[in-house]
Write a structure and sequence with these properties.
alpha/beta; 9 strands
Amino acid sequence: MTATATRPEKVEQPEERFDFRGAIEPVWCPGCGDFALLNSIRAALRESPHIQRHNTVIVSGIGCSGRVAAYLGVYGFHGVHGRALPTALGVKEANPELNVLVMGGDGDGFSIGGGHIPHAARRNPNMTYIIFDNEIYGLTKGQVSPTSPQGLAGKSTPQWPAVEEPLNPIAMLVAYNVSFIARVYAGSPKTTTQIIKQALAHPGFAVVQAMSPCTTFYNTYKIWSKQVRQLPDDHDPTSREAAFARALDTSTIWLGVFYRNERPTYEQVLQARIDKLRADELSDDERLRRLIDSFM
Ligand code: SF4
């Protein structure tokens, strides 16, 4: 799979009216939840004053949702399978002034790319990761994914229902101490926009699990619409214990901000280290050696 990059200049729209529409129209299946999520993301970008097309990059993974990098009118990089997160981290560290968003699906993010999440959580870069979760591999025609319910038979594997239990992504994110954790649903677009705006404004690593029914291979609209509920007003998002308790309550698909905390970002820690080395009276070679040593 070849990585591709897109540039926002292809879109001829004045900055003041820019709606973050990309040059390419989506080719998802009719009714796919990704359409609603794309609209909510566009609205959140529009309503976030710090986000402009010249200072924003979307890095996406492989899968149906990975196409969003081309559907949004900002800089885009469609990376290789499961590697959106480390690629985005490289973009952010090369230019910390950029707003960096990462997007991809449950297969890309929780399976082949799952090992990158805890390390991004440890570093706490100021980035937003939106994981479109349809509980199925849609692009490759319906194999079960890490979040498929146990016993689900994908359309391409009808005689081999899922043997494994599904991941609990929110519990996993709480365990990893991700500094902003939320869940949204494509069927609740206004709330989705508000939550994504909060994720974009969070100074640190924000992860949003975005429930997005796949109408072609696992149409969950009817099931999920009966299960989703907003987190109650008395949920305390500063409590990791409360977030974990809600995450473990799988009888309901709770929506909203489970958890948030603020701590120094990766960029801030790196900059402080660089500033200290600059302040020391060292030769350039010695300064470089110490900087490299400090990361070994
Ligand atoms: Fe959406 Fe599923 Fe179609 Fe992919 S296969 S575009 S996830 S409905």
